[in-house]
Amino acid sequence: MMEILRMITVGWRDLMDNKSDPRVANWPLMSSPFPTIAMCLSYVFIVKFLGPKVMENRKPFKLRKIIVLYNFLQVVLSFYLFFEAGMSGWFGKYNLRCQPVDFSMNSDALRMANGSYLYYLSKFSEFLDTFFFVLRKRYDQVSTLHVIHHGIMPFSVWWGVKFMPGGHSTFFGFLNTFVHIVMYTYYMIAAIGPEMQKYLWWKKYLTILQMIQFVGIMVHAFQLFFSNPCNYPMSFAYWIGGHGVLFYFLFNNFYKQAYMAKKKKKAEDINGNVIKIQNQTILTQDKYNSKNEHEQREIEQNNLRNRL
């Protein structure tokens, strides 16, 4: 048993120290995934248990100005990350079919590695999305989709930064930061106040954009199963593509519940109202016919008495 544990420990240290990118070895949080795992689990505990318990007997906080500022900063950060990923690779220097990682000290390679690391750190800043919901007691927004998406992302991205901070897998972050520019712009406008609702008719299309993003991520990752001329590690194709599949179905389920179900219910309500009106019309018509029949009988009886 001790020998097995020793072999696992040695293998783990070899993976962390010798198989990873040496350029990121001394960067904060990069020596081991366990601090990231601890923060992700703490996030889930806070937003699902501790936060609601603390807020149980408190009034919701009014955080409108803070949330507007937060979303604006997320738009700026997302734009910067998208620009960095594009300039260091995806605006033309990288090959969409298959792109190996450049582990050298080349300026573009370091630029992509630094951008990947900042993208990883940005996933922790997005925890604030949920913390604001809890402080405002908007627990309906703390959905399973929301918590899974935010809770798993830092852990998922950590492996990419540790072993592959560049190349094919960074397409995930490139697409994701573009979607976040649009998403946080929407949130910023929504946070300004109810008077902005008339400008937010495109919420449904934001969800569609997010699903298109995950389809793009799946196609880009899984194409390596059929052609891998740059010999990119297939483990990362599985890892990135698997996340694309997971999030696509989670967002697709949200879309069905949020929009298609409401549309169906609205149609049922309209049909129900039509049936109700039709039934009311029939009852009124029956009542009218009954009244006419009663009056006709009275006329016939009067005519009979007159004859007598």
Descriptive keywords:
globular; mainly alpha; 9 helices; disordered C terminus; 308 residues; single chain; 0% strand
Would you give an account of this structure?
This protein is mostly helical and 308 residues long. The protein has one domain. 74% of the residues lie in helices and 0% in strands. The chain contains 9 helices and no strands. Helix 4 runs antiparallel to helix 6 and helix 8 packs antiparallel against helix 9. The radius of gyration is 30 Å and the shape is globular. The C terminus is likely disordered.
| Alpha carbon gap, first and last residue | 119 Å
Rg over C-alpha atoms, rounded to the nearest angstrom: 30 Å
**What percentage of residues falls in helices of 4 or more residues?**
over 70%
Largest sheet: none
Shape: globular
| Binned strand content | under 5%
Pick out the low-confidence regions.
303-308
Order of helices and strands: HHHHHHHHH
How many separate structural domains?
1
The total count of strands amounts to 0
How are the elements arranged and paired?
Blueprint: H1 2-18, H2 34-54, H3 64-90, H4 107-125, H5 127-135, H6 144-163, H7 171-192, H8 203-222, H9 234-307
Helix pairs in contact: 2-5, 2-6, 3-4, 3-7, 4-6, 6-9, 7-8, 8-9
Summary?
74% of the residues lie in helices and 0% in strands.
